[in-house]
Amino acid sequence: MSERTDTALRDLVTARRSPEVATLRLRRARRPMPVAWEVLVGVGLLAVVAALAIFAPLITPIDPRALALDQRLLPPTAGHPFGTDDLGRDLFARVLYGGRVSLGVGVAAALLSALAGATLGLIAPVNRALDMLIMRIVDGMMSIPAILLAIALVAVAGASVENVIIAVTVVETPRIARIIRAAVLSLRERPFIDAAVTAGSSWPRIILRHLLPGVASQLIVQTAFVCAAAMMIEAGLSFIGAGTPPTTPSWGNIMADGRSLWQIRPNLIFIPAAFLSATLIGVNLVGDGLRKALDPDGTRA
Amino acid sequence: MFAYALRRLLLAVPVLGVISVFVFSLLYLTPGDPALVMAGDQATPDDVERIRVSLGLDRPPLERFGGWIWRVLHGDLGHSIFSGQPVTYMIGQRLEPTLSILAAGVIVSVLVGVPVGIAAANRRGGPIDRTLSVAVATSYAIPVFVAGYALAFVFASWLRWLPVEGFTPLENGVGPYLRSLILPALTLSVLFTALIASVTRASMLETLSQDYVRTAAAKGAGRMRILFHHALKNAAVPIVTIVGGGVATLIGGAVVIENVFAIPGIGTMTVDAILHRDYPVIQGVVLLTSAGYVLINLLVDLCYVLLDPRIRY
Fold it and tell me: Largest Cα–Cα distance of chain B, in whole Å?
């Protein structure tokens, strides 16, 4: 809130010659930020899932990798609330620890894509030739179906959590870059940018002080959606055997382990799936809520 | 129209160029020596050398790229390291199941999604509209293979109406062919129907707020005539766009769910290729599916002109 007011005041000072922009900014700043119910529900869901993942060692004493061949494929019981898999590993412990990997991949890939995508999207419009080059590469990358692009990257680079994060980042960066570039192009026509140019600001200063704050709200919303997409891609990659290595439990991985047994023990697939879906719903609710709060008129994509 | 088609075709060239450079350079992303990685643990130095030569890794990258592009343009995607068959032949063998699922998935999604979207727009905030918004949110939160297992659990395992897995080619009869397509196509359309319905709804709402719709109502046109005769055609461009754009998601979905239903298509072939580190096959699949996607969107762009004569290029 205070940061918004600061931006508004700064604009008032820098864009004095454009009273229209200044009043517009002030009105936006005075309006209290509505907290949509979606955000509350979403944050609640995410808090529960994150707490279960973070405090996994405190919640269950069982090692998610411990084999117990005399306790294979047990249905849910008091000792194993979610049952056990075909190697006798406790599904409850695996789902909790698996959350660490899935959430970690989602957050890491989202932050990396936001950083890379915002950099490309902010830099591209500076120069026409650069813009051409970057946007053609973005077009090309976006023409490769996302999961196939990720499969190809992980297949050649080797299955590891780091490579899954890198693959998802490569997939999602062009999407963010395109959205940020479009926002920058429309922002650039606004008078306060002319004012900054006239005042002799350098390009790096204009990008960081004027354009970045202008696209920040869209960047935050997109980062949330990329986080959801990243967890979805991780699950898909692990499911077909091109993701997180089998020794590390992740939600996608646990479901992949349960594949051959889904008719006998559907819990092996549907319980981790429920955790993944709850998380995705949470992230999407937060993203949608933020989008509505930051752009109540729905004027931007 | 012709000039536009030509210009649009030229725009696709740099996109295809970027795709091919990416697909080509995949091999260089391998940590260490790709030939050594591909040959596996039990390979003799002769095997490694043979793979190195067959991949052309003994020559400089630029020369290799030139030769590779030249062969790709002549329809030669190289040979599988594992089976030795030409990649184009392998893909051709697996094309029928994958294309069948994709086509069936698109048809089901459009046939369900468009009417639902129209109904939702017709009564904004009504029961169908509210159900749709929940369905859209849910469809974004369910991985496609989980949807596949859920459908298989209900219709194959529990009700026993449909085969659990497998694919029956068309030459073995239309009935069995369609039966084996139902579950995979339904799974794909779970992903896609909600998206099409929500785009249809938004586009219809936009169109229904236009003046000419009020004029049509004022001169006594019935609601059905307004929706289907006046509004739908003008609302069609965004719907066609999302069908074209969504094909990428559908291709990805097909690759994954072929593994749920054990369908011998491109997706299961890709997974085998990953297991064997069969890079030429992976490269071929990525290149061809991407090119197919570019082509479909080219056709979609050309469709706009047919749908909306106001669009002039």
Answer: 84
